[in-house]
Amino acid sequence: MFITKRDFVKYSAAAFGTTFLPTWAQAKPLFEIINMFVPAAPGGGWDSTARALERAAKAGGLIGNMQFENVGGAGGMVGLPRFINQRKGQGNSLMVCGSVMIGAAIANKSSLTIRDVTPVARLTEEACVIVVPSSGKIKTWNELISALKNNPKAVSVAGGSAGGTDHLVLGLMIKALGRNPKEGAYVAYPGGGPANAAIIGGQVTAGISGYSEFEEQIKAGRMIPLATSGSTRIPGLNVPTMMELGLNVVLANWRGVFAPPGINESQRNSLINLITLTVATSAWKNELSTRKWSDAFLTEQPFVRELNSDIERTTAIMKDLGLA
Known about the structure:
By secondary structure, this protein is α/β, with parallel strands linked by helices. The protein has helices spanning 5-16, 45-59, 79-87, 99-107, 141-150, 165-176, 192-200, 211-219, 265-278, 282-291, 300-320; strands at 31-38, 63-70, 93-98, 118-133, 156-159, 185-188, 206-210, 223-228, 252-259, 294-299. It folds into two domains: 5-125 and 254-320, Bordetella uptake gene, domain 1 (D-Maltodextrin-Binding Protein, domain 2); 126-228, Periplasmic binding protein-like II (D-Maltodextrin-Binding Protein, domain 2), CATH 3.40.190.
């Protein structure tokens, strides 16, 4: 993966911890500065992933500093053109984004998409969790499914940006119930905070998002988790998947890192090495465990193939939703 034996010896101490090495023996950072671009507001999933990468890379001695720029809006479509135009050819720049950006580009009919940046690595997957407010009329999975099957338009569901993973999950649920996905009453919110407030306040019937977005409210008893959208249960969370409950729906929200367009092969390889060594650190593994993110690390052609497959699948679902 573009890591030579000589490089491995040089950087292994950085990747696997430098606790027992004297200062003079520690490897020089791979990058003194990484410019990290997050096409979303601070505090959300993409931003959290970027901050986790910073902590792990610093703990491993792989970078000197990471400078952040957040530009939110429209599922990444406001920030993406800025990253492409202002960071083109910069070999020390990265952007964290993920599956949400694919659907957002389609929904916004954007001329610039995730295909216009350079894939570096897929990092994580996070299954969605379907919740209802504990103060609401619907409190069980069967009640929610019955209401959706009877009249999807009467069941308002909060989530992230239109065309994002949360929206796609609802569309797949409605389709699996034999109804038209276009009938879904999806309410898009710009971030986890407003969506949480709408769910808890009873402004919507249910909500769909990554577990980390709802974790605090679930633990506080203000939301009831009914099901998850992954192929397996979320580690440490005793909530069944939709497949377990008899609904044939599986979809996870992945996140990864991309470089700007216009970088050369050497610059790309250096960034791949940086991320490869970062995800090997104990600090990164702790981030995965703490945040209940599934390790989905891929780079090179396997990542490109998965990316192309996801674009095709998302486009098909978006057509079902009337958004493409």
